Amino acid sequence: MTTIETTAITVELPEAFDTRWSRLPGIQVDGRRITIDPAEYFFRFESHTWLVADWELVKSQLMDVQETAESAVEQLALDFIKAHGESTSDAARVLATAYEVYAYLFRDEHLASLGLSQITAEHLRMLREAATLMALNKVELDGHISNVGPCWFFPAATSVVFDLDEEMGGLLDEVYHGGWFNEHRRIESIKAHAALGGRLVHGCQSVPDQSGGVVAPYGASMATFRDDLAAFKDGWIEQVYAHRVTDPA
Residue 142 contacts by C-beta under 8 Å, 6 or more apart in sequence? Predict the structure, then answer.
């Protein structure tokens, strides 16, 4: 593991998180308060700055803007980030912003149109929690992956924390990175992720590969990203699964 010296990250969020997140090293949950010890939690932690934008500003100035033949939704998001993005070393702010983003993207009203009867409001809560923690992962503009925590490997982390079997863990992962399987949700996701300074990208084509995802800055080298991820993912996925509880009763 590569890490920089840093103090514990503490944030209080609007929603109490599942206490089973404490199964993973370096994270403690006390109701709505989450404390992360970066030295224990991250596999790689080389950067303590992130790019964020005010969520209320995203909602009021970007979410209702429509793309045109001259300006695609990705360009709208990029322009917004350029105008309103701020660099922050406050990890709690990143987590608080991410919570708002994913509370919006994984809201219960979408369940009826999802077309997957197996996915419930409880599963959406799992998605909100895991995706919020994922926001501390980071990719640099040159494509180097600077921060990697357990939630990079979404199915592995959720199986450990929520005792999901492989089938349900994979299905939840598909909902997470599939844009809810339609273009409307994808467009909504691109706009919402402007609050986290980039777009959601994945190192895998589908669940079986399980290479995870991250909010990466526009313009980041995806070739370097792919090669860096391939070099470490198998060993770190194995380490996440090592914390799985064999008898969760």
Answer: 220, 221, 224
